Amino acid sequence: xxxxxxxxxxxxxxxxxxxxxxxxxxxxxxxxxxxxxxxxxxxxxxxxxxxxxxxxxxxxxxxxxxxxxxxxxxxxxxxxxxxxxxxxxxxxxxxxxxxxxxxxxxxxxxxxxxxxxxxxxxxxxxxxxxxxxxxxxxxxxxxxxxxxxxxxxxxxxxxxxxxxxxxxxxxxxxxxxxxxxxxxxxxxxxxxxxxxxxxxxxxxxxxxxxxxxxxxxxxxxxxxxxxxxxxxxxxxxxxxxxxxxxxxxxxxxxxxxxxxxxxxxxxxxxxxxxxxxxxxxxxxxxxxxxxxxxxxxxxxxxxxxxxxxxxxxxxxxxxxxxxxxxxxxxxxxxxxxxxxxxxxxxxxxxxxxxxxxxxxxxxxxxxxxxxxxxxxxxxxxxxxxxxxxxxxxxxxxxxxxxxxxxxxxxxxxxxxxxxxxxxxxxxxxxxxxxxxxxxxxxxxxxxxxxxxxxxxxxxxxxxxxxxxxxxxxxxxxxxxxxxxxxxxxxxxxxxxxxxxxxxxxxxxxxxxxxxxxxxxxxxxxxxxxxxxxxxxxxxxxxxxx
Length: 545
Hints:
545 residues; mainly alpha; 0% strand; Negative elongation factor complex member B; COBRA1
């Protein structure tokens, strides 16, 4: 409590104890101690007895004076940090730190010492090491001081950042697996600026400040984790962090990040949920501007483009462009993906239009045109072998589901069983698909629809992919009342968790079982079927004449 006072020649509690132990007249010793260490103001000689008369303890008075002086000192330190020439102000702060640092462990003085360190752009290394070595001091110091410690201690910085990264991933997964299923509000609903206000992004932004070295460290953590786990949420965080610093106009970092302008342009597209021709040319220009030998820049740009929010925007824009091309009777040009795959998607759009028009014709003009049920082999092959084609194909399926186009959905559903890197069974796609399927809720009463959706798609992966198991249970929790009882019973059996199933699957299954149990009629409610035989009314016989 009194650490450091002796070094400054100030008496403390231990000195008073020693004085009282060795003196013959304790009262005189106490009086002398008060005179030597009290507030040396002549006017107080008359004021203190007055306070005594009011029963105010001397401790309360001195504590009040101390608190007031400490606040004044804190204000003065903050003022020094802003006034005069840079060299002069920092020299004053360094001198003040040198005089006060010995009191850093004294709780009442510690805030002043920490304030001095906070305003010093470069705290002496020796003092930083002392702070770092003491857990309590390290915890108490300002983030401005911690930055100076972190920049030369990557492991310590990693220990601080790691829990935040885990929290971020968990938050994203919680959204994807939320029991609230809706086509109106989904994973991609929040705007980029809203997402950047999240706790993790804000904490990381504050931890980095204007420190380029710390920013580079965080990027390296994100690169390493993405390469190790292939979790695309790290890509989202990479983009959000850069744009959060952009919002604060931290030019020290934004100007040295080669991805800044590209990310800024893409962020505007994500905000508007569309990539127009002008921005498409800008984005292409940035990519073309990457010179040979700048592999790391390409790697970082790949992460920015791998952000699910970027893919969502680009894929939705592609589908919109395809619809425009169908209306203009034009086909895409250049590259196999563009000249072969996109026209395949356009042919599906044409099939839909043809079928819709046919249904509107008068019955005498209608030809017996059933909805097409086959899928071109080339389409399935593209979904299996080409990542970009697969992403666009999946977004087209989300598009037709959102349009309540049951026929087109059932036609293309078989192609999803085997896709590039199992993208059709990824959390983001299944999150969006389950939300859009709520628009087709009435179809769940039909055996054909449920067999195609559950047996033909979901259940093919449930046993090997726990995330699929969770998404199916989420969907049934929301729509179980729409499914035919017999089908629901068979699905309940098929979805029963195994010993290897995780707690999340077991919890969802229990929730579903409880809901289904509540739907069953109680024995008291089951009554005998009333007889269908009705008594014949008496027919009057004609009166005899």
